[in-house]
Amino acid sequence: MTDPVLSVSGLDVRFATPDGDVHAVKGVSLQVARGETVAIVGESGSGKSQTMMAVMGLLASNGRVAGSARYRDQELVGLPLKRLNTIRGSRITMIFQEPMTSLDPLYRVGRQIAEPLIHHRGLGRRQARARVVELLRLVGIPEPERRVDSYPHELSGGQRQRVMIAMALACEPDVLIADEPTTALDVTIQAQILDLLADLKARLGMAIVFITHDLGIVRRFADRVYVMKSGEVVEEGPVGRLFAAPAHAYTRMLLAAEPTGRKEPPPDTAPVLLEGRNVKVGFRLGGGFLAGPPIEINAVDGVTVRLVRGQTIGIVGESGSGKSTLGRALLRLNHGTGQIRFEHHDISRADRREMRRYRRELQLVFQDPFGSLSPRLTVGQIITEGLLVHEPRLTRADRDRRAVEAMREVGLDPATRNRYPHEFSGGQRQRIAIARAIILKPKVVVLDEPTSALDRSVQKQIVDLLRDLQARHGLSYLFISHDLAVVRALADHILVMKAGRVVEEGPTDAIFDAPRHPYTQALMSAALGHATRPDTAHAAG
Amino acid sequence: MLSYILRRFLGAIPTLFVIITASFFMMRAAPGGPFNLDRPLDPTVMANLNRVFHLDEPLFTQYLRYLRNLLAGDFGPSFIYRDFSVGDLFANGLPVSIQLGGGAIALALLVGVTAGVYAALRQNSFADYFVVATASIGTTIPTFVVAPILSLVFGVWLGWLPAGGWGDGAIANKILPIVTLALPQIAVIARLTRGATIEALRSDHVRTARAYGLPARSVVITHTLRASILPVISYLGPAAAALVTGSVVVETIFGIPGIGRFFVQSALNRDYTLVMGTVVVIAIFVVIFNLIVDLLYAWLDPRVRLD
Predict the structure, then answer these.
(1) ipTM value > 0.85
(2) What are the C-alpha distances in Å from A52 to residues A57, A96, A106, A203?
(3) CATH no. of B93-300
(4) Which residue of chain B is at minimal alpha-carbon distance from A292?
(5) Domain-by-domain residue ranges, chain A?
């Protein structure tokens, strides 16, 4: 390689913890040439972020770094802070995964973008401001003269990430490190940010280091790829070769981890299980003593859903589209209105006590496998808690037997049932949450983004598990997700939601192959434009 | 902004009304009266006194009379300090208490915030442990222990400062009472600041500031200090109201003519008007300081909207 602008060799990162040292990065070496786009790919905990944090001198206070990281001829490891501060933010800049929190909420964005200009370039406030407006225009912020005086909370997530990019470009860096810059954003916004980065790179010619877990982004965006696993680089090479002929087993596993398969629709004779007609959920914002009337917002605005036995309806849409709220309204877990029927019962007006009869047949699995399990109960207790309510006559031994059964069914070792949730990984916890739902032998399960917090390879396992459980027990699913690849693999019918309304619905293939509504089209092109098609990924693996 | 302040004051009126009403009737429900002394008074004298002070009227009539007078700015006569009206007592004592309380707040903020930030920047170092330990001790030692010790050491042994007395408000006389009042506040503020600073230093936007090569000083002063004092501001609202309305212990030990001593004396002596006056003054201060806190908070944190 000619003229590496950033070169890392034998980089080691360790964190001192009460349980001993954690060796997060183990002898990583990588080079970034001038103007090159390098992707570092790996699942959570692979050390991909920590490698770059170490280069930037941003490790947590218990982190220690050894080895070498050079910017041109300058060694960065062990460089005194004063000297390091002349490089970071100026020659090497960084944008982060969390656009919502990476900007200081207490200052106007213009001032924050100006800070590196004033500090590194010695610009005065007025000159800096003019340059900031120019930068905001460059990153596609509308009305930059006005937005320069906005506070971060007045901007959307996508706009905040644009502001971060403006800040990163302010001093015309040689290297831009992007740490999962689109993970926290909706797909259409993701696509915009990626396009912006590609465009800026073409115009300004800096090198980009792209840290991501999303292979679709890598394929579309990067020149070369480093694949990391457990703190080590396991494979490295040009994008084309890596996707066409992955050498390492782990890379092949990552490539094959896109969810695959299709769901056949249930027969036409299948009875209707759960039906909601003209469902509305409104929220009041503001208002109060002497503050005037509150603002009414309809999170779900007249949606009709019909779920038949054995069916999986995928509800897709961006954050704030009302898809989770709809799921809850159908289970009568919020104050939604509209006619809701379960089997032959009208449950629109059932109160909490009447609903209890139906609860065991209408179960819910949440997105966050960390927050939705009580940390103070053992896994066995968590799984069998519903039995205490719905089958109070069971003895302790009966419940234990049922717990063992349910855990086997979701692929967990029943011997672990006396442990606590924090001893399990994210994927295992999601299995626990599923076991808690299916132990009651439900008919309908609402799955609210059950795979969104998980790595791709784990996602695939959960998708397989859900499909398997459905076939075995004839379950019906309402599958809420913004992840179109997962929805495509699991659902046979799709509702596309936007701003509380269904803009399009139909069989999965029809929606994916020939979306009619412009919003669906935008969603599809944004998601599939950079996501590996399941079939091709499979062929590659 | 102005309309917000106006609305807040209007909103405070019902609050004050409830406080006044509740304290009026609770106070009168307690047994005894201002003229029940150790040596019983002659019944005729007692009846005369009660008539002069309208204590012979039905309770509700007295309540209405009190409200009417209060609206006209008249707190009524003190039953115990016979030569003074309650208004006079506050006019003399309140400035003294406000000077001491204000001085204590300023001192507590200066020392507490500095110590808290310093400790946070050197988390888990000796300096940090020292600040945390001192702050813990500071919150546990009561003022009635600190005040005599300070008076003894600096007033009597070293002779640097007056051991007590107001001295017509000479600065030397204010130092020890102010320090005594400030010490427990310093402890609380240092702990709050330390916690908030540590949290702010861990936040993503501070990582951003560091990633952009800003010097350590500007990272701390620009990007953490504001966040660090937000919880202190919240705490200071009620605390400041308590400070400027005086302290029984400090005023008694240092012999200072503030209004703090009225709390206890008036309650024990059933000096009805003075009890009510104290309640009203404290309630007004609480309302005002809470408003100031909210305004300050909104000024420091643009995410908070007042309207």
Answers:
(1) no
(2) 9, 11, 27, 24
(3) 1.10.3720.10
(4) B307
(5) 4-256, 270-284+296-361+449-541, 375-440
